[in-house]
Amino acid sequence: MAAEYSSFVAIGDSFTEGVGDPDPNGGRDRGWADLFALRAAEQWPALAYANLAVRGRLFDRIVDEQVVPAIKQSPDLVSFAAGGNDALRPGFNPVQLATRAHEVVRLFKASGAEVILFTCADVTPHIPGISVLRKRFITTNDAYKKVAKRHDAILVDLWADRAFEDPRLWSPDRLHLNTLGHQRVAYDVCRALDVEPDPDWLTPLPDLPRPRRDMNGVQWAGRHFAPWVKRRLTGKSSGDTVNPKRPELTKVK
Predict the structure, then answer these.
(1) Topology at the third CATH level for domain 7-206
(2) Domain named SGNH hydrolase-type esterase: which ranges (predicted)?
(3) Cβ pair 124, 134 in contact under 8 A
């Protein structure tokens, strides 16, 4: 019999906050964690949900700002996704990340929570010039696989899901998932936890033709990459003025 959970806390960066998936009701971005919580509540009626994730956060700041507030709420299910932003920056240290990830998962497990971990989806085919960082993503994914195995955590292997090769699952910035992409993650999480996914998430996209990119490499760099570089040079983050959208556990339905 599949496990049933009564409280779910999601922590991380833009991936977990839901950037790229606008709320159809006009609120904050929605994303896979919201979608999963809504779907899981159909199966687990008592489910309460919190989302502490903030866009732009690096691994250490996620740990420092979100882990203790999550544990204080005594959830029985936690998702932890961090390190993608770090892998894009100079000085990335995968050994340090792996060491601290082990400690984070150990703390959650000691608190009585089940833990969901992720490998990142392969973004390198979609962003010009980023293939040079592919080894970093693979190294980070390998670290999370080892952490999941060591602590018997649930691993959602997005890298192995070939659906993310389709550019139609990615936002115009090519770094964040769009609505279809977040639905696919929610589907993968549901499958990992024996929750019945929303059938609409499996509606196949037409095989051909795939839409062309809405801008070429030069246009994309000017609109999306250059502002990202400017923030790095000025020490700013897209999440500097952003607070968690759902900081406390509240009933989903």
Answers:
(1) Rossmann fold (3.40.50)
(2) 10-184
(3) yes
